[in-house]
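User: Can you predict the 3D structure for this chain?
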Amino acid sequence: HTLLHNCLEQAVAERLILTNPTQGCKLPQLEKKEMKILPQEKIGMYLAEAERRGLLAAFYLELTTGLRRGELLALQWTDLDVENRTLAVTKQVNRINGELVVSPPKTRNSVRTLALPQQAVDLLIAEHKKHSRNPYLFPSPKTGTMYDPDAFRRTHDKILKAIGAEHIRFHDLRHTFATLSLKSGVDVKTLSGALGHYSAGFTLNTYTHATAQMKQDAADTIGGVISQQMR
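Assistant: Here is the predicted structure, written as C-alpha coordinates:
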Protein backbone atom coordinates (compact mmCIF):
# COMPACT_ATOMS: atom_id res chain seq x y z
CA HIS A 1 0.00 0.00 0.00
CA THR A 2 2.81 2.39 0.88
CA LEU A 3 4.59 1.80 -2.41
CA LEU A 4 1.41 2.18 -4.46
CA HIS A 5 0.38 5.27 -2.49
CA ASN A 6 3.72 6.97 -3.14
CA CYS A 7 3.60 6.13 -6.85
CA LEU A 8 0.13 7.62 -7.18
CA GLU A 9 1.16 10.69 -5.18
CA GLN A 10 3.85 11.28 -7.77
CA ALA A 11 1.27 10.83 -10.54
CA VAL A 12 -0.88 13.53 -8.90
CA ALA A 13 2.14 15.83 -8.62
CA GLU A 14 2.82 15.35 -12.33
CA ARG A 15 -0.87 16.01 -13.11
CA LEU A 16 -1.32 12.57 -14.63
CA ILE A 17 -4.35 11.94 -12.38
CA LEU A 18 -6.51 14.34 -10.38
CA THR A 19 -6.56 12.51 -7.02
CA ASN A 20 -4.82 9.66 -5.30
CA PRO A 21 -7.34 6.78 -5.03
CA THR A 22 -5.38 5.23 -2.16
CA GLN A 23 -5.91 8.31 0.00
CA GLY A 24 -8.05 7.42 3.01
CA CYS A 25 -8.08 3.69 2.28
CA LYS A 26 -8.67 1.62 5.39
CA LEU A 27 -6.07 -1.10 5.56
CA PRO A 28 -6.97 -4.52 6.97
CA GLN A 29 -5.42 -5.30 10.31
CA LEU A 30 -2.55 -7.75 10.22
CA GLU A 31 -3.21 -10.79 12.34
CA LYS A 32 -0.14 -11.99 14.17
CA LYS A 33 0.10 -15.75 14.47
CA GLU A 34 0.71 -17.00 17.97
CA MET A 35 4.39 -17.74 18.35
CA LYS A 36 5.24 -21.15 19.76
CA ILE A 37 8.55 -22.38 21.07
CA LEU A 38 9.94 -25.68 22.26
CA PRO A 39 9.49 -25.66 26.07
CA GLN A 40 12.82 -25.43 27.85
CA GLU A 41 12.11 -28.58 29.85
CA LYS A 42 11.64 -30.53 26.57
CA ILE A 43 14.92 -29.48 24.94
CA GLY A 44 16.98 -32.26 26.57
CA MET A 45 14.46 -34.89 25.48
CA TYR A 46 14.29 -33.40 22.00
CA LEU A 47 18.07 -33.53 21.53
CA ALA A 48 18.28 -37.04 23.00
CA GLU A 49 15.75 -38.26 20.43
CA ALA A 50 17.63 -36.41 17.68
CA GLU A 51 20.82 -38.20 18.78
CA ARG A 52 19.01 -41.56 18.64
CA ARG A 53 18.21 -40.78 15.01
CA GLY A 54 21.80 -39.77 14.24
CA LEU A 55 20.98 -36.07 13.88
CA LEU A 56 22.19 -34.55 17.13
CA ALA A 57 24.68 -32.20 15.45
CA ALA A 58 22.09 -30.73 13.10
CA PHE A 59 19.43 -30.07 15.72
CA TYR A 60 21.93 -28.89 18.33
CA LEU A 61 23.26 -26.39 15.79
CA GLU A 62 19.73 -25.24 15.02
CA LEU A 63 18.90 -24.59 18.66
CA THR A 64 22.14 -22.68 19.24
CA THR A 65 22.03 -20.52 16.08
CA GLY A 66 18.42 -20.17 14.97
CA LEU A 67 19.27 -20.87 11.33
CA ARG A 68 16.49 -21.03 8.76
CA ARG A 69 15.92 -24.60 7.59
CA GLY A 70 17.23 -23.91 4.09
CA GLU A 71 20.35 -22.26 5.50
CA LEU A 72 21.02 -25.18 7.83
CA LEU A 73 20.77 -27.85 5.13
CA ALA A 74 22.87 -25.92 2.59
CA LEU A 75 25.87 -25.76 4.95
CA GLN A 76 29.12 -27.29 3.79
CA TRP A 77 32.20 -28.33 5.71
CA THR A 78 34.12 -25.39 4.21
CA ASP A 79 31.66 -22.99 5.87
CA LEU A 80 32.96 -23.99 9.29
CA ASP A 81 36.03 -22.28 10.74
CA VAL A 82 37.09 -24.69 13.47
CA GLU A 83 39.89 -22.54 14.86
CA ASN A 84 37.79 -19.38 15.24
CA ARG A 85 34.56 -21.26 16.04
CA THR A 86 32.55 -19.48 13.35
CA LEU A 87 30.12 -20.53 10.66
CA ALA A 88 29.60 -18.68 7.37
CA VAL A 89 25.97 -18.51 6.19
CA THR A 90 26.09 -17.73 2.48
CA LYS A 91 23.41 -19.87 0.83
CA GLN A 92 20.12 -21.69 1.29
CA VAL A 93 18.34 -24.63 -0.32
CA ASN A 94 14.68 -24.84 -1.33
CA ARG A 95 12.63 -27.31 -3.33
CA ILE A 96 11.35 -25.58 -6.47
CA ASN A 97 9.30 -27.47 -9.07
CA GLY A 98 10.44 -30.73 -7.56
CA GLU A 99 14.14 -29.89 -7.65
CA LEU A 100 16.48 -28.85 -4.85
CA VAL A 101 17.80 -25.40 -5.72
CA VAL A 102 20.64 -23.62 -3.93
CA SER A 103 20.44 -19.84 -3.93
CA PRO A 104 21.68 -16.83 -1.93
CA PRO A 105 20.03 -16.37 1.48
CA LYS A 106 16.68 -14.66 1.95
CA THR A 107 18.05 -11.11 2.25
CA ARG A 108 21.38 -9.28 2.16
CA ASN A 109 21.40 -9.27 5.95
CA SER A 110 21.03 -13.05 5.92
CA VAL A 111 24.60 -13.40 4.65
CA ARG A 112 26.41 -13.50 7.97
CA THR A 113 29.06 -15.15 10.11
CA LEU A 114 27.91 -16.82 13.31
CA ALA A 115 29.91 -17.49 16.46
CA LEU A 116 29.47 -21.05 17.74
CA PRO A 117 29.75 -22.60 21.20
CA GLN A 118 32.60 -25.10 21.49
CA GLN A 119 30.21 -28.03 21.88
CA ALA A 120 28.61 -27.21 18.54
CA VAL A 121 32.03 -27.19 16.86
CA ASP A 122 32.92 -30.53 18.48
CA LEU A 123 29.65 -32.09 17.30
CA LEU A 124 30.16 -30.79 13.77
CA ILE A 125 33.70 -32.20 13.64
CA ALA A 126 32.43 -35.59 14.82
CA GLU A 127 29.59 -35.45 12.29
CA HIS A 128 31.96 -34.67 9.43
CA LYS A 129 34.16 -37.64 10.31
CA LYS A 130 31.19 -39.93 9.58
CA HIS A 131 31.23 -38.81 5.91
CA SER A 132 34.55 -37.03 5.46
CA ARG A 133 34.42 -37.09 1.66
CA ASN A 134 30.99 -35.47 1.51
CA PRO A 135 31.04 -31.65 1.18
CA TYR A 136 27.74 -31.18 3.05
CA LEU A 137 27.63 -30.93 6.82
CA PHE A 138 24.31 -32.77 6.95
CA PRO A 139 23.92 -35.00 3.88
CA SER A 140 20.83 -37.10 3.39
CA PRO A 141 21.28 -40.61 4.87
CA LYS A 142 19.34 -41.99 1.89
CA THR A 143 20.94 -40.22 -1.07
CA GLY A 144 24.23 -38.92 0.33
CA THR A 145 23.49 -35.59 -1.31
CA MET A 146 21.82 -32.50 0.11
CA TYR A 147 19.14 -33.22 2.70
CA ASP A 148 15.61 -32.61 1.42
CA PRO A 149 14.04 -29.77 3.50
CA ASP A 150 10.65 -31.52 3.58
CA ALA A 151 12.16 -34.81 4.76
CA PHE A 152 14.09 -32.94 7.45
CA ARG A 153 10.91 -31.23 8.62
CA ARG A 154 9.15 -34.59 8.86
CA THR A 155 11.98 -35.87 11.05
CA HIS A 156 11.42 -32.87 13.34
CA ASP A 157 7.72 -33.78 13.52
CA LYS A 158 8.57 -37.39 14.41
CA ILE A 159 10.91 -36.26 17.19
CA LEU A 160 8.18 -34.13 18.75
CA LYS A 161 5.75 -37.02 18.59
CA ALA A 162 8.26 -39.44 20.09
CA ILE A 163 8.86 -37.26 23.15
CA GLY A 164 5.20 -36.35 23.61
CA ALA A 165 5.69 -32.63 22.96
CA GLU A 166 3.10 -30.29 21.50
CA HIS A 167 3.56 -29.86 17.78
CA ILE A 168 5.50 -26.80 16.68
CA ARG A 169 6.83 -25.92 13.24
CA PHE A 170 10.51 -26.42 12.48
CA HIS A 171 10.71 -22.62 12.11
CA ASP A 172 9.64 -22.38 15.75
CA LEU A 173 13.05 -23.76 16.73
CA ARG A 174 14.38 -20.45 15.41
CA HIS A 175 11.92 -18.67 17.69
CA THR A 176 13.06 -20.91 20.55
CA PHE A 177 16.67 -19.85 20.02
CA ALA A 178 15.73 -16.17 19.88
CA THR A 179 13.49 -16.31 22.95
CA LEU A 180 16.05 -18.16 25.09
CA SER A 181 18.80 -15.79 23.92
CA LEU A 182 16.85 -12.74 25.02
CA LYS A 183 15.89 -14.30 28.34
CA SER A 184 19.55 -15.19 28.90
CA GLY A 185 20.58 -11.55 28.48
CA VAL A 186 21.85 -11.49 24.88
CA ASP A 187 21.51 -7.92 23.64
CA VAL A 188 19.00 -7.30 20.87
CA LYS A 189 21.52 -5.94 18.34
CA THR A 190 23.71 -9.04 18.65
CA LEU A 191 20.70 -11.33 18.35
CA SER A 192 19.38 -9.40 15.34
CA GLY A 193 22.69 -9.95 13.54
CA ALA A 194 22.70 -13.65 14.38
CA LEU A 195 19.18 -14.10 13.02
CA GLY A 196 19.94 -12.13 9.85
CA HIS A 197 17.25 -9.53 10.55
CA TYR A 198 17.43 -6.16 8.81
CA SER A 199 17.21 -4.22 12.08
CA ALA A 200 17.21 -4.62 15.84
CA GLY A 201 13.82 -2.90 15.83
CA PHE A 202 12.35 -5.75 13.79
CA THR A 203 13.77 -8.25 16.28
CA LEU A 204 12.28 -6.32 19.19
CA ASN A 205 8.89 -6.17 17.51
CA THR A 206 8.96 -9.88 16.71
CA TYR A 207 9.92 -11.00 20.21
CA THR A 208 8.01 -8.56 22.41
CA HIS A 209 6.85 -11.50 24.56
CA ALA A 210 10.45 -12.19 25.53
CA THR A 211 11.59 -8.59 25.94
CA ALA A 212 8.86 -7.62 28.42
CA GLN A 213 10.76 -9.23 31.29
CA MET A 214 13.99 -7.63 30.07
CA LYS A 215 12.35 -4.22 30.27
CA GLN A 216 11.18 -4.95 33.81
CA ASP A 217 14.65 -6.16 34.80
CA ALA A 218 16.16 -2.98 33.36
CA ALA A 219 13.65 -0.85 35.28
CA ASP A 220 14.43 -2.71 38.51
CA THR A 221 18.18 -2.28 37.92
CA ILE A 222 18.05 1.47 37.39
CA GLY A 223 15.60 1.78 40.25
CA GLY A 224 18.07 0.02 42.49
CA VAL A 225 20.90 2.32 41.41
CA ILE A 226 18.87 5.48 42.12
CA SER A 227 17.61 4.12 45.44
CA GLN A 228 21.20 3.51 46.59
CA GLN A 229 22.02 7.18 45.93
CA MET A 230 19.13 8.25 48.16
CA ARG A 231 20.51 6.44 51.21
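Residues 40-198 form a domain with the hpI Integrase; Chain A fold (CATH 1.10.443.10). The longest helix spans residues 208-230.
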